[in-house]
Description:
This is dUTP diphosphatase. By secondary structure, the protein is mainly alpha-helical. It contains 5 helices and no strands.
Amino acid sequence: MDKLEEVFRMQEALNREIDSLRHLEGIGREEWLQRLTLATLSELAEMLDGVNFKWWKNPKDVDEDYVKEEIVDLFHFFVSMALRSGMDAQELFSRYVRKNQENFDRQHGKSRKPGYDVHEMEGET
Length: 125
């Protein structure tokens, strides 16, 4: 089993445990995606607190461990979103590979979607 598949397996087990313990089995897919989106926003806000985004406050040393912990929290919610959307690790990986290639193509004007070609920005059309 590859590492991404293992992450998905672990997250599915955690989701089942939380659903059972907290009596959440009746929640539908749409509501789960709404809840997970809000949870992700909450975790992003927590991460912001750890990286000195408040220009009006004196900066403090960034707690690297805290930042990494928040990234892992975000990853939990992203994997849970994928699962609740019906994606498995293989589908997520395949979609990531396609989108990654599209993002490279956009940067070089090889995409049908306008506004990304870096050469246009530099006047090198």
